[in-house]
Prior knowledge:
Elements: H1 2-7, H2 11-23, H3 32-44, H4 48-60, H5 64-76, H6 80-92, H7 101-110, H8 114-130, H9 136-148, H10 152-164, H11 169-182, H12 186-204
Amino acid sequence: MMKKAAESGFARAMNEFGMWKREGSHGVVRNISEATSWFKRAVDLGEEDAALNLGQVLLSDGDIEGAVELFRVAAQNGSSAARMNMGVAYFKGAGGCERNLSKAMSWFLKSNSANGLWQVFQTLQIYNREKNRTGKDQERCWLKRAAMAGHESAIQLEAAHSLNEDDDVDSSIRWYKKLAQVATTSTTRAMALSTVEFLVGDKEL
């Protein structure tokens, strides 16, 4: 059904069928060459998501400049993943992009994602070090934004800062509880819960 729609000229179906070909899913035999062809046809018809997918194929083939050109198209049309990729391009100075940490942070922020906020925080730290600037308050602000958005590493770091730098046990407990909720591994979840138990017990002494 999807293949018929793609063959009939529907750009979105071309992109979707290309993903099936790339992943070898939905009973379709995996074929990167055919996937690439479908993505290219979809891009020619203006399918925004296909630009991201084709860019990823080119990136895996080592064509970084070609990939970044497509990521830029997808990013300008609202793709969160493509905006993250543009941030990485400016952070590394790759794919024809001159290294520019300010532009990198701008693209990370435009991704409108927890990971984007986390990358803004990390990039800002590097930016401040390279510029010999002291910006701890600004860095902490972005760390908190990433933590509030649910980024696991940001929550863990904010929980530690609340306890060790702010001496705010109540806030630290709240952050560790949130960490337990979002933890992607049983080890991190167990650590968060045991820390909550310890801090609550310590408060009661």
